Amino acid sequence: MKTKKNTQLSVLDNAREKFILACSEAQSLQLINDFGSAFIAAGVVKTLREVLTDEVMEEVFMPLMNTKIGFLTDRSMSAKKPKTPYTIPVVRDSIIDAVGMGLHPTGNQFNIIAEKMYPTKEGYTFLLRKLNCKYIITKGYDRTPANSPYAEISTTINFEENGKRQTLTLNHMIKKNDYTSHDQLQGKAEKKSKKALYEYLTGHDLGDGDIDGGTIDIPHVDMTGDEKKANLKNKVSNKVDLP
What we know:
Layout lengths: L1 H28 L7 H15 L2 H8 L10 E2 L14 H14 L8 E4 L2 E4 L1 H10 L4 E5 L10 E12 L2 E12 L6 H21 L6 E2 L3 E2 L9 H9 L2 E2 L6
Parallel strand pairs: 1-2
Antiparallel strand pairs: 2-3, 4-5, 5-6, 6-9, 7-8
Helix pairs in contact: 1-2, 3-4, 5-6, 6-7
């Protein structure tokens, strides 16, 4: 019995070392923007699939599901309408996607919604910090009628890019109901703002999701990273002074 336990600990320790190594390699993907990055990405995915066996998933990562210390999903047994939690393959794929972006499977940096991984407000905060992005977000208030199914909140992002101070002004449509609080709307507007800023700086379109309302149906526009950035540039001005 003791030998079996020692063997299990050895397996987990080995998996931990390889997982940390894969995460470190994934960090470099955020700094490389060329065709050679495909080789690094393939290596990261391959390593993670080898490391994240069903045993490791069951012992380490599945207990993190639906906890704020780990990651939340739209399937929780503790919800008002309990749903069967996601399976190991779905969680494994989500963790691989998250790690590939530079996110951690702790601290609620991503959610799993409709079997897909979506970065959270905390996740975008983490990603922007890694970019050494200096920014300030000013949030407005919902001006729609109380019975409206959507809130409309404007935000202004003052940020610095390559030493140049700029402003990005956005208008967000956020799903709401009779139980949605002001703080929840403000939090979602902040998350959308950080998402937009990250996409502007990187040219990556990451999609959007809401843990309370499932995925958000946004018309898809097929564009390259440069085109995505150019699209957001229409909303950028250079009139801000950051502290």
